[in-house]
Design goal:
Layout lengths: L1 H26 L7 H11 L14 H10 L13 H14 L1
Length: 97
């Protein structure tokens, strides 16, 4: 009984710490279309050729390369780089995980 009284507060603090960690990680996810989000997409999908060549991250060419790398064959709709397009890319990345 004494053991339970001593350990229960620690257990509760541990659970609260885990909860705050999970909400902090989702809060640190950059919003779609932001420069940080573009960097994350580049890291996950990649547009370079392995020799340091590739479009500038966040440029219109970069958006079209991401579109092709996701194997989306239909015309780029919504417009690459638009908030709706970034949301679609975000959803595709979540499905890849």
């Amino acid at each position: 009984m004494v053991f339970l009284r001593r350990c229960l507060p620690l257990l509760c603090l541990g659970l609260l710490g885990c909860e705050s960690l999970s909400t902090t990680q989702s809060a640190n996810t950059p919003p779609p279309c932001s420069p940080e989000w573009n960097q994350r997409v580049e890291h996950l999908i990649g547009t370079g050729d392995g020799y340091g060549h590739g479009p500038d991250i966040g440029s219109s060419e970069w958006y079209y390369v991401i579109h092709r790398r996701l194997r989306w064959s239909e015309p780029a709709n919504p417009q690459p780089g638009s908030p709706a397009w970034c949301q679609r890319v975000d959803q595709a990345i979540q499905k890849m995980k």
